[in-house]
């Protein structure tokens, strides 16, 4: 599924009264979706900051980075290992480090250090598509435990093991032939919403 703005839209899970968000991006497609997410957060008056330590050479991903820079979204040069600094500076973290296409080898640096830090933050974590460190089929082995999951296109098998507060799906953009091919049964999207809640707040 191509990267699109509609895939990265976790706004219902982030109260507007808590505008500061740290968006942590990995080097592959999920990281690019995180950049798109940060851009949308800025458009809707949140205050995102991006940590993107291993930038992809892909021209499309470079364009997303440039767009964020042009919108004056700050980029961190390093992720504090003192978790309290993150807890104090931000109200939520968007996990766009590893996604459904991640393989075991992608747990190496800098991703391993990032996950080690994110496992200890106390502020809410919103994971895009697949929580980082999870196997797309089996679920969590040594990954993080997000408060919110935003499944892209459709929930992956591992979402059955998600125990967080809220689960959204962003898949309204899927063509009907794709839905039929993969025997998807998408939920009804109210009005013009790009995401729909699969689990009410707990």
Automatic annotation (TrEMBL):
Domain YjeF N-terminal: 1-186
InterPro entries tied to this protein: YjeF_N_dom (IPR004443), YjeF_N_dom_sf (IPR036652), YJEFN_prot_NAXE-like (IPR032976)
Pfam families (alphabetical): YjeF_N
GO cellular component, one term: mitochondrion
GO MF term set: NAD(P)HX epimerase activity
PROSITE patterns: YJEF_N
Domain of life: Eukaryota
Listed PANTHER family: NAD(P)H-HYDRATE EPIMERASE (PTHR13232), YJEF N-TERMINAL DOMAIN-CONTAINING PROTEIN 3 (PTHR13232:SF12)
Protein name from the UniProt record: ApoA-I-binding protein 2
Gene source species: Pelecanoides urinatrix
């Amino acid at each position: 599924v191509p990267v699109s703005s509609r895939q990265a839209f976790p706004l219902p899970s982030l109260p507007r009264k808590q505008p500061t968000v740290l968006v942590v991006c990995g080097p592959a497609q999920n990281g690019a979706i995180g950049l798109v997410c940060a851009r949308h957060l800025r458009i809707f008056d949140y205050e995102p900051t991006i940590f993107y330590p291993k930038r992809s050479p892909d021209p499309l991903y470079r364009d997303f980075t440039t767009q964020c820079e042009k919108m004056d979204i700050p980029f961190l040069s390093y992720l504090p290992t003192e978790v309290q600094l993150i807890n104090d500076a931000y109200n939520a973290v968007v996990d766009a480090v590893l996604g459904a296409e991640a393989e075991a080898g992608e747990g190496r640096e800098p991703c391993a250090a990032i996950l080690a830090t994110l496992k200890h933050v106390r502020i809410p974590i919103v994971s895009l598509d697949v929580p980082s460190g999870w196997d797309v089929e089996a679920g969590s082995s040594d990954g993080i435990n997000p408060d919110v999951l935003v499944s892209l296109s459709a929930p992956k098998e591992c979402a059955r093991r998600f125990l967080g507060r809220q689960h959204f799906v962003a898949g309204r953009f899927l063509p009907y032939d794709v839905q039929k091919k993969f025997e998807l049964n998408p939920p009804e999207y109210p009005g013009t919403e790009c995401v729909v809640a699969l689990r009410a707040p707990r």
